[in-house]
Automatic annotation (TrEMBL):
Superkingdom of origin: Bacteria
Species classification: Bacteria, Bacillati, Actinomycetota, Actinomycetes, Mycobacteriales
Listed name of the protein: Heme-binding protein
Species whose genome carries this gene: Rhodococcus jostii
C-alpha cells in the first residue's frame, strides 16, 4: 500500500507567512513565523524587524510540534502540565516539542499538509498571528 501525502508548497508557505506578517504588524507584535511541510521540515521562515532572536527556534519548533502531533500547541499544552496525560512531552524529540500557544496545523481538504509556528509576542498575540496565517491557506 502506498500513501500519498499532499504538502504545502513554497508559494503556500509564503502566502501563509505574508498573512501572518500583516496581522503581526496590525497588532504591533514583531514575530518569527515559520511554516513546515507535511514531513515537519522547514519550508519558509521570517523574522520580522524587532522580533526576538530566541524566538526563531521557538517558532520553528512550534510548527514542527503542530505537524508532528497534528494538534495545535495550545491544545497540547492543555494536557501537558503536571498530572496531564502528556506531562513531560516537551522533553521528547530532542526538546523540539513546544507547549506554548502559537503552533497550528495547516489543513487542506481535511488532510494535514504542514503547520505554522509563531513566536515573539504573548501567547494571545502568537495565537492571533497564527490564526491569521492559517486562514490564508
Amino acid at each position: 500500500m502506498t500513501v500519498n501525502q499532499t504538502s504545502v508548497s513554497l508559494d503556500d508557505a509564503q502566502r501563509v507567512i505574508a498573512a501572518g506578517q500583516a496581522k503581526a504588524d496590525e497588532i504591533e507584535s514583531p514575530s518569527n513565523i515559520a511554516v513546515v511541510d507535511a514531513g515537519g521540515n522547514l519550508v519558509a521562515h521570517v523574522r520580522m524587524d524587532g522580533a526576538w532572536i530566541a524566538s526563531i527556534d521557538i517558532s520553528i519548533s512550534k510548527a514542527f510540534t503542530a505537524r508532528a502531533l497534528d494538534i495545535s500547541t495550545e491544545d497540547l499544552a492543555a494536557d501537558a502540565g503536571p498530572g496531564g496525560q502528556f506531562y513531560g512531552i516537551h522533553v521528547s524529540n530532542g526538546g523540539r516539542i513546544m507547549i506554548f500557544t502559537g503552533g497550528v496545523p495547516l489543513r487542506h481538504n481535511g488532510q494535514v499538509v504542514g503547520a505554522v509556528g509563531v513566536s515573539g509576542g504573548t501567547g494571545e498575540q502568537d495565537k492571533t498571528v497564527a490564526e491569521a496565517a492559517v486562514a490564508a491557506l
